[in-house]
Amino acid sequence: MTRAVLGGVVAGMLLLLGCSVGTSAGEDRPSGSPESTDAATRAEAMDLLRSGTEFIDQTSFRVDTDIAGQVTTLSHVDTVGKRATITISAAGRVVEIRLIDDEIYLKSEADLPGVGHQWMVLDPTRVPPDFAVGFAPGKNDPGGSARLIDAVVTARAAAPYVTGTIDVTRMRAGNGINFQPGPGETFPDSARSHPFRATLDADGRLVSFVMPAANGIPDASLRYSAFGTAVEVIRPEGATAAPAALYRQLGLRG
Fold it and tell me: CA–CA separation, 15 vs 2, rounded Å?
């Protein structure tokens, strides 16, 4: 199962950005019941996780993701200054993306049909929704923390940690940590209750979200650092307009 999952990740290595924060209404339970106590514990922990990612819209940061050492991303993002660089490495190939204001540049070492290996400039209006590259809230975190938090099932806070379980099957396609079963494969039932541990720093910011390997799901980690560090991005010279073939291959669903 691990090989199938990693195969799905590598096949979709171009899908970087595109997260959304959603909420769902919970079922009301009698006050003081064990269920309400558990709900209160989870709610407190979830509030810490969500508030721990507010820095994404407020300052610059670095984010690293790693899936079993086989798929890694390194990104520097400044939403306020509208500058970002993202590098994805998978299967021995590298994809680079640079964002400057509303301009999107991409260069890929992957052999994509109808697409070369030169720097290309993308038309933002033609970028598929799942790719979601930009600086607007919900489109500015290459780590995809919101998708992870939205899939959390149980959570408990014990400073500086938040621990619990996450439903891997509920993790929407998107940036950062992204598991996909291979053809003819399905996730095991245990994937609906996979352990995780998040760490918050002294300022309450989320600095790590770690999922250990278990039951066919590979280990994966998301880490934030370098808060407030300047992000410099050089506009690629000679970039050509991206061909139509690229837009069809940007996402896992493409």
Answer: 20
